[in-house]
Amino acid sequence: MTLTKSLAATGLSCFCAILSYGAALAQQQEFPARLAGHAVLPAGTFMDAPVDAPADLRLSGKFTTGIRVEAPETVEGFSNGRPTGLKLPFKGQPIQGHSGIKRMADGTFWAISDNGFGSKANSPDAMLFLRNIRIDWDKGGIETLKTVFLHDPDKKVPFRIVHEGTDKRYLTGADFDPEGFQIVGNKIWIGEEFGPYLIRTDMNGKVEAVFETMADGKPVMSPDHFRVVSPNPGATLPMVNLGRSRGYEGFAASADGKFLYGLLEGSLWDAAAKDWEKLDGKTVLRILEFSVAEEKWTGRHWKFPLEAGATAIGDFNMIDATTGLIIERDNGEGTPDRACPEGKRAPDCFHDLAKFKRIVKIEMNDGNAGGAVRKIGFIDLMKIQDPRKIARKPLNGGVLTFPFFTIENVDIVDGRHIIVGNDNNLPFSSSRDPNKADDNEFVLLEVEALLGAK
Q1: What is the pTM of this model?
Q2: Among 26, 34, 194, 268, which is least packed by CB within 10 angstroms?
Q3: 186: Cβ–Cβ under 8 A, 6 or more apart, which residues?
């Protein structure tokens, strides 16, 4: 090749790269978000276990230290070394840890709890449940209309559960970690993180089936999958291809209810590359498709690339047949006004601030199946406009921030609005005040431009 042709080819290559980069920037266009409503459920909100539940479930959080603690409210909750002001164990079950939300046709919402206190080991006395709630945006209140506790009286769960020998067999956070759900017809489908598994229940929370996950024709197993046995010293776990607690975090359904889309929080292990799955150097998370009618994985998938600065996703719901909303976030929490001095860490300030908290609109269709979703645009949850001054928390620099470590609820409300909510990890997150356990918050956001973006 001559020098002239080489330079021409290099110039064309650079030009194409610039076009490609410009297209990527266009896909990542930022849109405004305006606050249209704000509701708060106080952190210290509890409910009694059902009357037919084992006595063990009347006091929750007894195992968060690694050993049993029976004395109520004697163990301080900490968030990154900061005391949060709430102490375990709790009398009753905490209403916290919202990990997925769905708007109903009547204007109410269903929300699901997560596993309880963060791991299989520390949550055997945390009940698993969904709540049907009504949100009063004018008054900022949240009313519970119905609570549905997950239970397995017909022994459909393929492994031993905590309350194996009881009649109702209530499920706990040592059994499953529910992170997302969909209501299709008269069934509740739940995306679970530990296995990861797909769980089907009736509308009263009774388990009807548990499905293991498949990807690329192989089972997907984390170290907490029931088929995984602890190895001898020095041995490996060749069947494990997903990190612990990296199962389903987002869980969507097609507009017609024919398919479910489970979005993993972690990458699959690429045995050939001996690395976690990547695409163009970016960490990618799989969206796996499940046929409701056939009750099996279709084999189709999409890839969600994490942007620089992001470490995880939080929730996933579809807008229409081909577009959806995904929460993409970092692990930071807190705002600059309460930050620790540079390079310092203390129990009364934030040392790792929230920076990357987004709702991303994506497109997934037949054309990009097997490849990456198209990211159309996003809103920044760290700068929610509040021109009507309706926020129920203090503003930062004239905007409402949503600086939570885990933001795990998003759904479309109508053609102009979406709902977003946090998982407050009670009592282990303090993202607004360094020393105060986070409340459960929901915000109604006007994002017409994002929803209309192509």
Answers
A1: 0.93
A2: 26
A3: 202, 203
